[in-house]
Amino acid sequence: MKRIAQAIASLVRRWPAPLAGAAVCAALVLAFGIPRLKFQTGQDTLLDPNSRVAVDNVRFQRQFGGDPMLILFEAPKDGPGIQQLFSPANRAELTRLERDMNANGDYQSILSPLTILQFAQQTVQQRMVAEPQKLAQREQQAMADARAASAGRGETPAQQEAAAQVAKQQIDDAFNAEFGVDAKRFLDAGDASLDNPKFVEFVMYGADGKLRPDFAGAFPDDHHALMVARLKGNLSIDATSRAAARARERMPQYHFDGVSVLASGPPLLIKEINDKMRSALFVMAALAVALMVAVLSGIFRARWRLLSLPAVLVGCVSAFGLMGFLGIPLTMVTISGLPILIGLGVDFAIQLHSRIEEETFTSDSAELGLERTFARLGPALILAAIAACIGFMVLHLSRVPMVRDFGSMLAVGAVIVFLTSVALISSVLYLRERQRIGATPQPRARFEVERLVGRLTARTVGRFAPIALVAAVVALGGLYLNRRIPTETDPEKFVPASSPVLRDLHRVSAVAGTTSELDLLVETSGGKRVTDQDVLDWMGSFEQRQREQHEELLQSNSLASFTRSVTGEPPTTASATSTLASAPQPLVDIAVNADRTMAAITFAISDRASLDQRKAVADAIVRDAQPPAGVTVAPAGIAVVGTAAVDAIASNRDLMSFVAIGAIAVLLLAVFRNPVKAIAPLLPVLLALGASAMLLYFLGISYSPLTSISGPLIIAMGTEFNILLMTRYFEERSLGNDPRHAMSLASLRIGRAITASGLTVMGGFAVLALSDFPLLDNFGKVTALNIGLCLLSTLILLPPLLVWADEDHRLAIPSDAVTQ
């Protein structure tokens, strides 16, 4: 590493202006890659496309469609009720709305309240004809059975006829109890037309005056109706967002007498998340720049103290341009990387800037200052950058594609920003320092950071035992409590509570009870069909059993329950086939496919259920399915994808952190060839993570899905502070200073740079906390807290640890600053 650093120094010394120009020109060329950056927003950013859940969901959505848009119709409570939605003028407007939505190509199926009412009208008329016919058949069968039974007992013909009449009367009584009241109401209603309000009332309401249960999905109560427009399946988030936006924008074009209309649904919430995340990218970048200016102006002591910022911004242009050419996509996670890279890049630049000025001031020579900087700091800075990249690449252990892309983006970005910062900072400062005449005193900073760091170090050195004991307790306690910190899985908590979209969604949920659903894909093989009797019997009992066992399931729909609602009897192959033949196409499309080898079972699930609860219910349902031979059942739909993605993000959170620690420890061991030197930089990071977990637990702060992946990032960047302080200590020791004095000098000379670096990295994450988007807010707060604790742990634990190990002869101090 030292040879690499010296080669860079030689390059800067020989061609400073061309090197700086080359860095800027590279940024200009790579900037053409920025327009090639693509926002990847499909399901394949959330789940591995080859995973079982992803494959099943693609197949389900291809056949049955994607997320539902919900159009809520509301009639005033002091009016005649939702029946007025079906006045002639309003029916015409409903027809126009449905026709226009079908014409724009966004939807797989549209289920309108009018469609349901028209089918109910058709069904009622058919039943009024069919039920008397069925009654006659049941009467004849019952009388025949009674005569046969009487004859079997040896009774006379008169007794046999009497038994037949008793059986007939029993059938008639059962018929009148079940159907007689409705038959009378049907006759009293008059004309069987939707233009007849009495008939509409008869169709919608039972004899008890309540809405018929079969209408629960379309008519939640007396004053509301719901249109469900299911988007085409497997759309990207962008396409889903555009379709949702079109639906909401066009709704004011339709006017219903005495009825208001509200467009809502999960696609609009997805659009809100997508739009907020994208707009936050530019806001956060601007805030990051402002915060870097504040830190550099207030903490960093150097001439041209803001030089780091333009150098890093040039590096960010190069980094994002290269990512465009490499095809690394921007996702809902990776767009948060810009402020992080700005903070990390300024961190590297500060260290280099500070050391060049220190060495140049000491030697009174630009050439010597440059050479000493790269000889002494260069290897440590390269090592810190490699450690950071290792931490970022550990994110590739995640099962979530967009998290793996995040790791790639940060690793590529860190390398480019590091190289650009080194080239620009060293070249510009070398050109400036070549013109210096005599020693110019460095300007004093606003805060005496060195004095503060020196006092902190002085109080900790020599007290390793009690500090180590407290650190061990905090680290182990935090490791224990970390598993007890919940991860927020309520999707509504990922967007601002003040969001109009969320408010509308809550309004629909308050009326309908839910805006979410859990879908199951039922598939047959070997010549079997979903209309086979054993499949229908299983489907009906399974659906009813799940609703009884899980209170989160509010409503359900399947071929079996749909057939029963139409015929009023347990479904048979014949009745299911007949129902499908007579039903409107939208009702058929949401139930079965064309060749009857696939069917959907859809459960409406309470919005109050978190993603964890939904996952538990989905898992329990699939375990309890036990379909007939030749039938398979698989979960599908947005709820399943969401729960699977959150589960995948959080599932190996600890594994990624442990691998990051292990990989960086191996790197340090290979470089330093001393186990104490390899472990020492990691112990303060473990202390910081433990302290953070304890704080979060006792403050009642939950993790978010994004926070679950922050461990490797914190380990990577926290290790950097420790490497820089440790190698500076080695440098001071190699000059002949005793351990305690060497630590005092190291903390005095590098303390301000490390503090400024820590604050810039914290700032990169902290700007995420300034977002009004809770998903980013939680990620920013927790990660910034962890980085701050890493900085504090570095200054509290590492100095006494190194001095103790050195005095106990556990460290072999090299003659060089770091290593060959």
Structure, briefly:
The protein has 29 helices and eight strands. By secondary structure, the chain is an alpha+beta fold. The termini are close together.
Total helical segments = 29
Helicity level: 55-70%
Strand order of the largest sheet: 2-3-1-4
- Number of structural domains: 3
Terminal CA distance: 7 Å
CATH superfamily of the largest domain: Multidrug efflux transporter AcrB transmembrane domain
Q: What is the molecular shape? A: elongated
The CATH topology annotation of the largest domain reads as Multidrug efflux transporter AcrB transmembrane fold
Uncertain regions: pLDDT < 50 for 5+ in a row? 439-447, 815-820
Largest sheet properties: 4 strands, antiparallel
CATH class of the largest domain: Mainly Alpha
Radius of gyration: 36 Å
Written description of the protein model:
With about 800 residues, the chain is of the alpha+beta class. It has three domains: about 1-45 and about 270-490 and about 645-805, Multidrug efflux transporter AcrB transmembrane fold; about 50-60 and about 500-645, no CATH class; about 70-265, no CATH class. About 65% of the residues lie in helices and about 5% in strands. The chain has 29 helices and eight strands. The protein has helices spanning about 1-15, 15-30, 50-65, 90-105, 115-150, 155-190, 195-205, 235-250, 265-300, 310-325, 335-365, 365-375, 380-395, 400-435, 450-460, 465-480, 500-510, 535-550, 560-565, 575-580, 585-590, 610-625, 640-650, 655-670, 675-680, 685-700, 710-735, 740-770, 775-805, and strands at about 70-75, 105-110, 225-230, 260-265, 515-525, 555, 600-605, 630-635. Strands 2-3-1-4 form a four-stranded antiparallel β-sheet, sandwiched between helices. Helix 11 runs parallel beside helix 14 (about 400-435) and helix 16 (about 465-480) runs antiparallel to helix 29 (about 775-805). The longest helix has about 40 residues, at about 115-150. Residues about 440-445 and about 815-820 have low confidence and may be disordered.
